[in-house]
Design a protein that fits this description.
This protein has 15 helices and eleven strands. The strands form two sheets. The chain has a seven-stranded mixed beta sheet, sandwiched between helices. The longest helix is centred in the C-terminal third of the chain and has 34 residues.
């Protein structure tokens, strides 16, 4: 049997098991190590044996996030065309760094970028980069922001670095994702540079608060970071109000749209992110609502010159793509796989109508899970989904918070997988629905599992 045939057979077996296998992994570390050699082999193994051994080792530790009952950590599955194209990318093994190293990778990435901007209703002339995930999307976009705000003060950060540079102010929604913080660390700005902003509405920056913060240092190079869908309640900032305020003060506006930016692809939900196209940069992730395999984040900027200035590197042995865009000019990597192709496949498989329908379906399922679970005695609704994120607290009969215990019981049962979090100082269960294949039966099974877990603990 051919080695690829063995790999495909193992992949098909796993995908076929998603409806019946426990969503959470069940194996111990020892279970996963057992099928593998205990030490580095003195003699190489046959390829077929290697694939079988690794498949056996992974099996007890696999989480079924590709299925329809995984509602933790904002993970989608992988659409059929995106998954199949991702396999082709590995088989082709293209280095999509330059048009000269992979003409196919560069040209198809251009098409993927054009479709992406159209789907998200962002400026058609914006630049884009396909990176490993939203962490690197933030890093890439904020590097462009760093370049732009310092260049406006006459400082070439790419040549001179940050030593002696004007100090950059970073104003950010107080409820920002830790990947934003790490991006600022990677860029040499440090996590302490963040000045958190709040407002009168949960999870949203207030206009008065922003004006006051900008007025404190009107001449400082400034970056404002806003949310399109926060991790807990899916809150979105008022971009239509805040972006003009920031721009009037000369600030660069960056949007964390890891999943929430995709609301702009649905006519019923786009009002939640109204004005988001007025920002200067955006970060999002394909493995969330676009349902691509992992390794597919997107950084988008309104200022292609700043984007390229922050990323571009030349060498005598590199060949320019000429009329074809060189991906390397916009990404932080040299060697890179053709990760734009699964995104292109997903966008083509869904189309505008299919993408909008999938997003709306996920939101409806999130609301149905929330409504079903909060119908049980001891389940207290904290935030009903306005998008695809919701929060529920679970209480024992004595009033004590047992949310973490209920979450653990649900996950141990295997019917669904959920995660916890903290909101206003109390532990809660988070609902996050991003999977293209989640259906009404998955919702019913999850609600029933939550009810059984809660009843067993009260």
């Amino acid at each position: 049997m051919d080695t690829l045939d063995i790999a495909f057979a193992e992949a098909r077996r796993f995908l076929a098991s998603l409806e019946t296998r426990p969503v959470a992994s069940r194996g111990t570390p020892d279970d996963m190590r057992a099928p593998l050699p205990a030490e580095f082999p003195e003699t190489g193994m046959a390829p077929n044996d290697v694939v079988r051994a690794i498949a056996a080792a992974a099996e007890p530790g696999l989480t079924a996030n590709a299925g329809g009952r995984f509602f933790a950590w904002v993970k989608g599955g992988a659409l059929p065309a995106a998954l199949a194209t991702d396999i082709l990318c590995s088989a082709w093994d293209q280095n999509a760094v330059l048009a000269s190293t992979s003409p196919a990778g560069a040209v198809l990435e251009e098409v993927a970028g054009r479709f992406l901007l159209d789907a998200l209703q962002l400026p058609a002339d914006a630049s884009y980069a396909f990176v490993t995930g939203c962490q690197m999307a933030h890093t890439t976009a904020l590097a462009a922001a760093r370049h732009a705000v310092l260049a406006a003060k006459g400082w070439d950060v790419e040549a001179r670095g940050l030593q002696g540079a004007p100090v950059i102010r970073v104003l950010a929604n107080a409820i920002h994702h830790s990947s934003v913080t790490r991006a600022l660390r990677l860029l040499g700005l440090g996590s302490a540079c963040i000045e958190p902003l709040t407002g009168s509405k949960p999870g949203q920056v207030g206009a008065d608060e922003l004006r006051a913060a900008l007025a404190q240092a009107p001449d400082a190079p400034t970056i404002l970071i806003l949310n399109a869908g926060d991790l807990n309640i899916g809150a979105c900032d008022d971009f239509a109000t805040l972006c003009p305020i920031a721009h009037a003060a000369g600030a660069w506006v960056h949007v964390d749209g890891a999943f929430g930016l995709w609301a702009n692809a649905n006519p019923r939900l786009s009002h939640l992110v109204a004005g988001v196209e007025q920002a200067d940069s955006w970060a999002t992730d394909g493995h969330k609502w676009l349902n691509t395999p992992y390794d597919c984040g997107m950084a988008i900027t309104r200022d292609p010159a700043a984007h390229s200035a922050a990323m571009r590197m030349t060498a005598s042995y590199l060949t320019s793509g000429g009329p074809v865009r060189d991906p390397m000019d916009f990404t932080p990597e040299w060697s890179r796989r053709a990760r734009a192709l699964p995104a292109l496949a997903a966008l083509m498989e869904l189309g505008r109508d299919g993408l909008a329908a999938m997003i709306e379906r996920c939101c409806n399922h999130a609301a149905a899970i929330y409504d079903g679970v909060t119908g049980f005695e001891g389940a207290c609704g904290i935030a009903r989904p306005t998008m695809n994120q919701g929060l529920i607290r679970f209480d024992a009969q004595d009033g004590s918070n047992i949310s973490d215990s209920v979450i653990a019981a649900i996950n141990a049962g295997g019917e669904a997988f959920v995660s916890g979090g903290s909101w206003n100082g109390e532990r809660v269960m988070r609902i996050s629905v991003c999977g293209w294949n989640t259906n009404a039966q998955d919702v019913a099974r999850t609600v029933a599992a939550a009810g059984e877990a809660l009843a067993s603990l009260r």
